[in-house]
Amino acid sequence: MFMCKTLITLKLNLRRGSFPYLTLPDSLSSPNLKMLQLDMMLVVVDESFIQILIQGCPQLEELYIFFAGASKGNIDVVWDKDDDDEECGYEFPVEAIFPICFIKDLKEIKSKGFNNQDYELKIVEHLLKNGKSLRKVVSCGLLLQPSVCLRIFSFKRCSPHCQIVFHQNVWNTSV
């Protein structure tokens, strides 16, 4: 599956228990993949998994991400802002997982399960800042706050034609 030259659309459910032993090779090639949908838990999926997956899809135009967790459909991530090893945290290397060479050709991004977390804002900011071809960014979440929406609207956009859309009801928004 991960070395398929004809694959155009791929939907992966990477929640706890769905693929308990799934590992990617050191590299993969899906040169014609246009749409990738990831339904995942960051606590289950290693960031190198996402990085290898995305970098192997140079023609990707649409990326749909649903960050899910064990409770309330959202994941809670504790950031280790002080780099203190004693503190429990999760470092999300946005630039490494979503390299600019990959982002520049994306046309549409949808994320579900948005929960106003710092890591989510970093992802959106990075994608808007570097997505030269972006036409639309959609963020969905039951807990989406107006102040967070305003903050996202203030992020610099590489594409002057990029539309930002917010939905609170994740279940009625098709991906």
Structure characterization notes:
The protein has 175 residues and is α/β, with parallel strands linked by helices. It has a single domain (9-19, 28-77, 87-172), classed as Alpha-Beta Horseshoe (Leucine-rich repeat, LRR (right-handed beta-alpha superhelix)). Helices cover 22% and strands 19% of the residues. It contains 5 helices and 6 strands, in the order ββαβααβαβαβ. It has helices at 47-55, 94-97, 100-103, 118-130, 146-154; strands spanning 9-14, 35-40, 62-67, 108-112, 136-140, 163-167. The protein has a 6-stranded parallel sheet with strand order 1-2-3-4-5-6, with helices on one face. α4 (118-130) links the parallel β4 (108-112) and β5. The longest helix has 13 residues, at 118-130. The radius of gyration is 16 Å and the shape is globular. Mean pLDDT is 72; it is low at 69-90.
Note the main attributes of this structure:
Leucine-rich repeat, LRR (right-handed beta-alpha superhelix); globular; alpha/beta; 175 residues; OLC1v1022380C1; 5 helices; single chain; six-stranded parallel sheet
